[in-house]
């Protein structure tokens, strides 16, 4: 991961005042081809989120999970073919997050707005094997906006909406999976002083199981050391994005990426400002692009497609365009065009070993994209082309008594 950050910095993302050298600009207008396009949702259901398993060396397939607006989750197997393997119908509220276990491809976590996180075993037809919810004595549901699971799968964290003047980050012991699913003892506690509005994104560090980053509509990215005895001492960094945070994740030990509703920001949490920031006007790189019609999907920090990139969409009278943008000379350039896109994309996931980018969205479609030079095309039974997939600024906080 450190190589990713260094490569970005070498590409002059530190907002240098020097004019960029046009001779050094990398011009690459390759395409990602939709090697698989599958209409999997009907009755105007959106696909809200997607996750997947990184295929092991000897495993010929990988799995993806898709969360739908009708509260269901569907699991697919992707390899030489694309097959539905399970449908989970236990959710009773809108899904706010979906993630495979970091230690097992057979366990899928889902979080819903009614304050519940479940773990399902795909080997047992999606049976719910663990539940995580706030069962404190007041009995009031704390609606969730986000969740994550630590890299060692010992902790589950959930971020709540702003309710009755408070916003919570709740923690559960993921190892507490007794057969009594209504057991009240797996809630470990929570934080409630570090954010003032909805916690829209949580991200455990990829290798440090006790480090958690949170993002909120209050504009703050907070970094916590969970080994500390109190919330006040656990809050080690607070970064002010000056916008409403949508997603966050880690680039390296001390670097984060953040997408807000208007920008992409790259942060070193020792600094008071992002070392790179790109607004909607920077994303609208074509003469025909209107910044108001641009939207950010997700930043992918992996080098699986050659470089880290920002996936962004562009709505126009000609259709729903999609592009991968990378950083060149302190600005964004088109890295890959995706001309076959047919929907507003809500989420994406990258399978690194096969260089496959999965997108889902409001048209109920799952697309699997690969670089054009590596795609093998054939016709399926319906005569459609299908390809095989081989600020450091910390605000004042008032301490309040809570039941944790």
From TrEMBL:
Q: Which domain of life is it from?
A: Eukaryota
Q: Can you name this protein?
A: WD repeat-containing protein 89
Q: PROSITE patterns under this entry?
A: WD_REPEATS_2
InterPro entries given for it?
WD40/YVTN_repeat-like_dom_sf (IPR015943), WD40_repeat_dom_sf (IPR036322), WD40_rpt (IPR001680), WDR89 (IPR039328)
Q: Which UniProt keywords apply?
A: Repeat, WD repeat
Which region is the signal sequence?
A: none
Instruction: Give coiled-coil spans as residue ranges.
Output: none
Native species: Melipona quadrifasciata
Q: WD repeat ranges?
A: 192-234
